Amino acid sequence: MVEGNGVTIPADGNWTVDDFLSASQKIVKRDQDIWAFWPDFADVSEFGVFWVRQFGGEFLDEAGKRVVLDSPEARAGLEWVYNLGAKQLTFDNLYRDANKDQMFEQQGKLAMRSTTPGLAAEYRKPGQERVKFDVGIAMFPKGPKGHGTQASGSAMGFTNPAKQEAVWEWLKFVSNKENGIEQVFGGAGSPGGRTDSWTDGKLLAFDPIYTNIVKAFPQGAGSLRLPANFRRTALLKAVNDELAVYWKGQTSVADATTKAVQAGNAILSQ
């Protein structure tokens, strides 16, 4: 869909969001229900951070005590995503009742999608049946303030102090260099947070995306900012509920972010 419309995407992300929009217009064929790009946007803690950082904004301050989505930079990032559907029409409806995976992987209706590098492992896994074509994997283009970035992770816990030594050995195993590499080759996801996993020759030969990410972010992803009072679930619901009104086209980005900041900071003050 990309190459057939004369579009070339640099694997290292060395192009701009404006270039991206111009390329998207060559791909879209509304009468055939063919679209260029359907962004992930609904969770501000994941792709929301990615979008606003491309424009110089942030979701939380570094201390995790204030929501700062009402800055001009953060608003510009959110507005850019909203306009993908409202004005640029890279996709017809951000809330469309459809399966994004199926549109991209099976139906030939969606040319591009944004996700974490974890999906690269699934698409490149030998014997996988999710896609029948050679998926092109590239970094997202640069915004006005460079490439967007967001660290992401999950946690493990234990409840039996008598097993603390065994748990510690397990945690060391799942976070070592070799396990990070093998997670990719097993089709399980990203290499984790270790730079020595990302830069290992075996992984770099698997797909160029790892090389390109390391070159773009030699110090790693941007900071993972979490609420200082640990009320992450309540915070995300409060902020996402206010932003949803904007995503649905029912208010302005200024009004939505003002209310999101008020609602979020009320949670953070508790």
Task: Give the CATH H-level superfamily of the largest domain.
Answer: Periplasmic binding protein-like II
Q: Roughly how much helix do the residues carry, as a percent range?
A: 40-55%
Averaged pLDDT, please?
Answer: 91
Q: Which architecture of the largest domain does the CATH hierarchy give at level 2?
A: 3-Layer(aba) Sandwich
Number of E-state strands? 2
What's the story with the biggest beta sheet? 2 strands, parallel
Radius of gyration: 20 Å
Task: Note the run of SSEs as H and E.
Answer: HEHHHEHHHHHHHH
Here the CATH topology of the largest domain equals D-Maltodextrin-Binding Protein, domain 2
Beta-strand proportion: under 5%
Q: Kindly report how far apart the N and C termini lie.
A: 50 Å
Strand order of the largest sheet: 1-2
Which spans of ≥5 residues are poorly predicted at pLDDT below 50?
none
Q: How many distinct domains? A: 2
The helix/strand class is mainly alpha
Broad CATH class of the largest domain: Alpha Beta
